[in-house]
Design a protein that fits this description.
With 91 residues, the chain is mostly beta strands. The chain has a domain of 41 residues. Strands 1-2-3 form a 3-stranded antiparallel sheet, with no helix packed on it. The protein starts with 32 loop residues before the first strand and ends in a 29-residue tail after the last strand. Bound molecules: zinc ion. The site of zinc ion has 9 residues, from loops.
């Protein structure tokens, strides 16, 4: 895979602003996270923006996408979590 993180996917210029740019919510100043909730397992990784200084296009990527994979070692955060029963309408 070609690393095109410095190339704007909107205008094609190699004009992505270097350095750390983070998104913060105005209320809590928490990082914006990508959260994946499968089978009661919650996994989250920080969502990182890249900003083009030519056209202002903002792109997003996650820093460590492999962290979002659900594995058998992941424990449900809610011990009462049960999988939704299969309903007739699912067929
Ligand atoms: Zn651009």
């Amino acid at each position: 895979m070609v690393d095109n993180r410095n190339t704007c996917s909107q205008c094609g210029e190699q004009s992505i602003i270097k350095g750390d740019i983070v998104l913060k919510t105005s209320k809590s100043n928490d990082l914006i996270m990508v959260v994946r909730q499968d089978h009661g397992v919650e996994k989250s990784v920080p969502l990182r923006p890249s900003v083009c200084c030519q056209c202002g296009f903002v792109d997003f990527y996650v820093q460590d996408p492999t962290n979002l994979k659900i594995s058998s070692e992941d424990k449900p955060i809610n011990p009462d979590f049960k999988q939704r029963p299969i309903l007739e309408s699912d067929f």
